[in-house]
Each structure stands twice: as C-alpha cells, then as structure tokens.
Design a protein that fits this description.
Layout lengths: L4 H10 L4 H15 L6 H33 L1
Helix pairs in contact: 1-2
C-alpha cells in the first residue's frame, strides 16, 4: 500500500502539527504501520483459502464414513 507522505505531512501541518513532528509521523506510518496492514487482495486470497478448506471438510468426512462403512460390512 502506497502513501503520499508529503501530502500526509502537509495535512498534519495544516491542522497545526509542527513540521518535524508531521514528517516523523508520516515516516513512522510508512515504516511501521503500513507494512503490516492487509490489503483487499490479501483478504480475498484468505477468503478463497478458507472457503476451499471449509468445502473440503464434508468431502473428507464422506470419505471417512464410506471407509468405516466398508470396514464394518
């Protein structure tokens, strides 16, 4: 995720934050917060993975049930 740090710092300055502090906040955000945020693409990939796993559970249970039934008879 990209951020316009200059625009971010200018926005903080316009709100009354001193320039050095505004620049430090913009840099901290870029270095320490943004790298750990999930993107929409990350969430879509996770959603797909979870859907596939949930759909696999009934198939696995059916396989186990048929194996048990075959073992019993």
């Amino acid at each position: 995720m990209a951020i316009d740090t200059l625009a971010y710092a200018k926005h903080l300055e316009a709100a009354g934050v001193p320039r050095p502090e505004a620049e430090a906040q913009a840099e901290a955000l870029t270095r320490h917060v943004l790298p750990d945020l999930a993107t929409k693409a990350d969430l879509e990939e996770l959603k797909h993975d979870l859907t596939m796993r949930v759909l696999a559970i009934p198939a696995a249970l059916n396989g186990i049930l048929f194996a048990l039934l075959r073992f019993v008879h």
